User: Fold this.
Amino acid sequence: MINLLTKAGLIMNKINVFKQSAKIVFAAILFLLAKVPINAAAGDALSSVMKITGILTLLIIIVVLWLVIVIPDKSVDLNQAWKKFKHLVISKSTLATPIENEQEILMDHDYDGIKELDNKVPPIFNLLFYGTIIMAIIYIFQYHLIGTGNIMQDEYQEEVQLADMQRNLLIRSGAFLTEQTVTQLTDNSAIAAGQDIFMKNCASCHGFKGEGLIGPNLTDQYWINGGGIKNIFRIVRDGVQQKGMISWQSQLAPKQIQEVSSFIMSLEGTNPSNGKAPEGEQYSEESKESI
Assistant:
């Protein structure tokens, strides 16, 4: 009966060890999750938390298993077991000589009553020292002999190439288009895209053929606010408030404004039968643009 009670006590003792360890793991997870910024990217932030949590959990499992193993076949105070474990870790990681044996490593010299102990170098320092040597060898082979690693010059060249690719993508998307850099498009696909934009947004004021309704005729050589691709691009983008024309830059991308401006340029000389009378001044490419 006594043996059964003793075994039951051991089992309960070990269960308490697992309970306390589980509480520590749970508290560590809550602490790490609390440190994640609310607006952080879900992937990177949670991935870091899970990695750290996994490492902490593994360490705690190792400690728990050790405690379970070292607890003898009789009831033992958990505080005593923890102190033993902590003492073992400190003694093995520092190789410190016990206080009672310090006389054995006491050095001969004495400075104003201050004596020195000939302690061993802690293993962690040796580990760091040899680790730096190993990392230096790996670095030399990877970055200078084999060439699989990117040195700063290579990283710079890669970043320059990446920046050029991104810039070309932005140029093709029309993000850099202004009235100073815009050019007239002449390919059929761009003109067709511009025509589609014109029919949906501009025909109600300028007519489906550009003949002019509320707005001016777009098929002749007369322009109120200047002609040419640069002026037309600016007018479509900024609008003409005094004439009641809205700005389209919030609804059309720069590339779309270039396309519809190029379509408007293609209407010159089509002379629809019901065209509105000319307004403004005659414009030609040779004349100075009024930007």
